[in-house]
């Protein structure tokens, strides 16, 4: 690999993006408008639906479990569900095996659920927790930023390379000493640092107005963003490897991006959804990016806590990059 050729191509690609003011403005304004809109819409009113976590197979609370307008969510581990009660993500937690239940003392919904539970005479014992509620915008921001990374990566790399091929740019580059590895590396590096910069500016700017909850390390969050960005860019290379038609590329990129946007937990939690949907979501890089970012920001998770998500995104990066490099063609 010739570093001089790589640097020249990297510089040219950066200048091309920065001179496209429409694309640059859209990358910055879209996530800001989404975050501000949801912060305004959901800052005062909470959803009306009660959410109760259920653990154990014994039926100590048959009458309570038959109550309408309550969403009962199966819970595998009590220790992992208790923090959700603290953060008001669950209004109540029932352990039918031990006969204990948890509510947040500051939760209005928890108070009414406890009255309903006691009225059914289940004989279960109360365990209280405390914690500040999580605003919807606090929960939403990792997914919105991850979605912006997804669109910037897929369309910023995949669509651009397809346009190069259609316009004959790649055919001209093929006549130069430039190798496919140098070309793809320059595209990845250019999009990578630009996405990191734009996402950081968007986060910092919206944080000044909204004030996001941040319990973890900013360096850990940056590591999550870096791993997620690389996996998304590598996925875009697969789409751009051989296509020469912009319409076909646009359709394929939308086919890839829309399932991720809907099934990666960006807008709503997948808890309580069918098992098949949850398993399919684990195959999407945006799922791991969103989950790891939320764990850092809301739970204060460290690198070890999100190790599985980081490893998965890095493995996806290697697999996608290998497929994209092997199938790439100049014309």
Quickly describe the structure.
By secondary structure, this protein is an alpha/beta fold.
Q: What does this protein structure show overall?
A:
- Residues 44-48 have low confidence and may be disordered.
- By secondary structure, the chain is an alpha/beta fold.
- It is built from 13 helices and five strands.
- The protein is elongated and about 80 Å long.
- The longest helix is centred in the middle third of the chain and has 32 residues, at 136-167.
- The protein has two domains: 3-41 and 135-327, no CATH class; 50-129, no CATH class.
- The protein has a five-stranded mixed sheet, sandwiched between helices.
- Helices cover 65% and strands 8% of the residues.
What is the average per-residue confidence, as pLDDT, rounded to a whole number?
A: 81
Termini, distance in Å? 21 Å
Strand order of the largest sheet: 2-1-3-4-5
**Contiguous runs where pLDDT drops below 50 for at least 5 residues:** 44-48
Note the topology.
Elements: H1 3-19, H2 21-41, E1 50-55, H3 62-65, E2 70-74, H4 78-86, E3 92-95, E4 100-104, H5 108-119, E5 125-129, H6 136-167, H7 169-174, H8 180-210, H9 218-240, H10 246-263, H11 275-281, H12 285-299, H13 307-327
Parallel strand pairs: 1-2, 1-3, 4-5
Antiparallel strand pairs: 3-4
Helix pairs in contact: 1-8, 2-6, 2-8, 6-8, 6-9, 6-10, 6-12, 8-9, 9-12, 9-13, 12-13
């Amino acid at each position: 690999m010739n570093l001089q050729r790589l640097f020249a191509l990297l510089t040219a690609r950066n200048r091309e993006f920065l001179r496209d003011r429409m694309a640059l403005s859209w990358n910055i304004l879209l996530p800001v408008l989404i975050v501000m809109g949801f912060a305004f819409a959901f800052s005062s009113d909470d959803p009306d639906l009660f959410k109760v976590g259920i653990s154990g197979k014994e039926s100590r609370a048959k009458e309570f479990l038959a109550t309408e307008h309550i969403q009962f969510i199966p819970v595998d581990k009590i220790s992992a569900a208790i923090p959700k009660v603290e953060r008001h993500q669950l209004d109540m937690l029932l352990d039918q095996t031990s006969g204990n239940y948890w509510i947040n003392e500051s939760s209005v919904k928890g108070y009414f659920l406890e009255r309903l539970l006691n009225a059914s005479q289940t004989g279960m014992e109360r365990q209280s927790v405390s914690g500040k509620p999580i605003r919807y915008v606090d929960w939403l921001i990792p997914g919105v930023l991850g979605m912006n990374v997804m669109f910037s990566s897929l369309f910023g790399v995949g669509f651009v390379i397809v346009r190069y091929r259609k316009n004959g740019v790649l055919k001209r580059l093929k006549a130069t000493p430039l190798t496919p590895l140098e070309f793809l590396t320059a595209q990845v590096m250019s999009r990578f640092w630009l996405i990191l910069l734009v996402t950081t500016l968007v986060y910092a700017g919206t944080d000044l107005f909204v004030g996001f909850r941040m319990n973890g390390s900013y360096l850990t969050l940056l590591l999550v963003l870096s791993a997620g960005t690389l996996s998304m860019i590598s996925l875009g290379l697969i789409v751009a490897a051989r296509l020469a038609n912009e319409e076909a590329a646009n359709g394929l990129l939308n086919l890839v991006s829309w399932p991720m946007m809907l099934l990666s937990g960006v807008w709503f939690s997948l808890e309580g959804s069918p098992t098949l949907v949850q398993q399919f979501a684990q195959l999407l890089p945006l799922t791991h990016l969103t989950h790891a970012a939320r764990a850092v920001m809301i739970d204060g998770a460290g690198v070890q806590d999100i190790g599985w998500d980081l490893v998965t995104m890095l493995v996806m990066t290697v697999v996608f990059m290998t497929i994209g490099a092997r199938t790439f063609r100049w014309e």
